[in-house]
Amino acid sequence: MKDKIIYRNFQKGDYEEACKWWDWWWKGEAPIERELLPPDEHCFLVEKNNIPIVAGFLYAHAKAPVGYFTYMVSNPDYREKDRRNIIESLIQYVEDESKKQGIKFLFTVCGSTHMENIHTKLGWTVDKTAPAYETFKYI
Fold it and tell me: pTM score, two decimals?
């Protein structure tokens, strides 16, 4: 059986699921309040065989060609070997969606070496002089 990978926008219950993931990864720090996240059409989630794997959030303005992709979080219970590939695929998906919306420049902040390595592999520029590894890509 072929795995079914779905890229989609947030639906009911997705924010609550992301909060559980943030709680696990951030060791009890408060999750991002829903009001501070972009609207559902800019909240992205990847599922594999109906299991939510990773989510990310794109801040974009209709009249500005710049987007900020942030707060990526993954399901800590998903331990399959393709985990990294799925995370990479979400970033690529957001790049493609951003292009469709007229965004020409994306940036993010990598909070870990793991995320820095993924962005580097995908052709993003990593500024290691910045304290939190600012990362950007012209698309």
Answer: 0.90
